[in-house]
Automatic annotation (TrEMBL), chain A:
It is an enzyme of class 1 (oxidoreductase). Its EC number is 1.14.12.22. It comes from Streptomyces platensis. Keywords: 2Fe-2S, Dioxygenase, Iron, Iron-sulfur, Metal-binding, Oxidoreductase. The keyword Endoplasmic reticulum does not apply. It comes from the Bacteria. GO terms for molecular function: 2 iron, 2 sulfur cluster binding; carbazole 1,9a-dioxygenase [NAD(P)H] activity; metal ion binding; monooxygenase activity. The keyword Coiled coil does not apply. The gene is carAa. This is Aromatic ring-hydroxylating dioxygenase subunit alpha. It holds the Pfam family VanA_C.
TrEMBL record, chain B:
Pfam families: HTH_62. It comes from the Bacteria. Residues 5-75 form the Recombinase-like domain. InterPro entries: HTH_62 (IPR046789). It comes from Streptomyces platensis. This is Recombinase-like domain-containing protein.
Length: 337, 75
């Protein structure tokens, strides 16, 4: 099975933890009746959507001669490999071998098919190894399910190891420097003390001496999928509703690439919600994008061995804790441990 | 059938259309009103009208007409 290959500690640490959910791509990337090739956790996959909207995710590998199924033909409820026409249903079962009817491949489930869910405009998939094929319990981020909260998804693809993108979110202090020239993070002190506060689903990393002025706190949440929650004040120009929040997730694409998912959310209803949505689409989305580009420029410029030659200080406690969690996870999932 | 375009970097992911000049003007004026006049609906209606940024039919805004129009624009 694809997720067991090369499953050393280093490989898992570099390509994402197994036995949990990860975001893959926005739902809109796979239209009804369409297929899309994607890479996640270092493996090629095929997203396949039936005309009624039902989505499936298959290993992109024909069980016959390993040709990519993504080069094949969408047959409504199954895909036909282009090479020899072998047909694979969305649950991974070989439904027909046209060249040799009755062949013993028929009826066998030979292709990995991952459980998928669509949440807030994004596709989430469960990446279990052979010992953990049943999907882990998934608790969704409240800002994406609360009817009093409104959210827009922003998705971007970065040439950055997935873990560096998550670490960036567990490092609130960069807001006061990297994002000082931005519409929302220009204010507040450039010195701070931080603390870690444990929760039953992860931990807070927060400033002890400033709240509600800049990017002052972040919560790491491990609820079947890893995500962060954070909050940043809007300037007066953004109107009523208070600060905006971000639910952030990262898709480990492969060892050097990731997909970042940022839901910008705000607790607004009625005319205040409509006004925020109008301003967001017209003016604010561009400004948020400019901030995100500052992150991308910095993270893509980091050397490949960035985390091998560091001198960390108190502000990096949140990052250190994160690495420890992920490292322990990779060790426990490794086939060589 | 496949799409391997990388990287996907799209500034505008929430829009259904490019904003019209009217929408740009309304948005910029709303930001000015929120900055200088306040965040209440009465501030919005008064602020837009005092700046002569009127409803699409040219009439001054009322709370009701603003609610209706902003719902159309922001739903």
């Amino acid at each position: 099975m694809p997720l067991s290959r090369q499953a050393t500690v280093e490989h898992i640490y570099a390509t994402g933890l197994r036995n949990q959910w990860h975001p893959v791509v926005p739902s809109s990337f796979v239209a009804p009746g369409a297929m899309r090739k994607v890479t996640a956790l270092g493996e090629p996959w095929l997203l396949f959507r039936r005309s009624d909207g039902t989505l499936a995710m298959l290993a992109d590998r024909c069980p016959h001669r390993s040709a990519p199924l993504s080069l094949g033909i969408h047959l409504g409820d199954r895909v036909a490999c282009w090479y020899h026409g072998v047909e694979v249903a969305t649950d991974g079962t070989v439904s027909a071998v046209p060249g040799l009817p009755g062949c013993n491949l028929e009826g066998r489930k030979l292709v990995t098919s991952l459980p998928v869910r669509e949440v807030g405009g994004a596709i989430l998939a469960y990446f279990g190894d052979e010992q953990h094929p049943e999907p882990a319990e998934l608790t969704l981020p409240e800002p994406l399910t609360d009817p009093g909260t409104d959210a827009f998804l922003c998705y971007a693809e970065w040439n950055v190891p997935w873990r560096y993108a998550v670490e960036n979110l567990l490092d609130p202090m960069h807001g006061a420097f990297l994002h000082h020239e931005s519409h929302s993070m220009y204010d507040g002190d450039t010195t701070a003390k931080f603390r870690i506060r444990e929760t039953d689903r992860g931990y807070f990393f927060e400033k002890t001496d400033q709240r509600g002025v800049n990017f002052d706190w972040v919560e790491l949440c491990r609820t079947g999928v890893d995500w962060v929650d954070l909050e940043i004040p809007y300037p007066l120009s953004a109107g009523p509703g208070g600060p905006f929040g971000i639910v952030g997730m990262v898709c480990p694409v492969d060892e050097r690439r990731c997909g970042v998912f940022f839901w910008r959310y705000r607790r607004v209803r009625g005319w205040q919600r409509d006004t925020w949505r109008f301003l967001y689409r017209t003016l604010i989305e561009q400004r948020h994008w400019d901030v995100l580009e500052q992150d991308r420029a910095m993270l893509e410029a980091l050397p490949a061995d960035a985390d091998q030659q560091e001198n960390l200080y108190q502000h990096d406690l949140g990052v250190v804790r994160l690495r420890r969690l992920f490292r322990a996870g990779a060790e426990s999932q490794s086939v060589t441990s | 059938m496949t799409d391997t375009t990388w990287p996907y970097l799209d500034v505008h992911q929430s829009r259904t259309h490019d904003p019209t000049p009217y929408e740009y003007k309304l948005a910029a004026t709303l930001e000015e009103v929120f900055t200088k006049d306040g965040h209440e609906l009465t501030d919005v209606v008064r602020g837009l009208n005092s700046r002569q940024v009127h409803a699409p039919d040219g009439t001054p805004w009322t709370e009701e007409s603003f609610r209706t129009e902003i719902h159309r624009l922001g739903a």
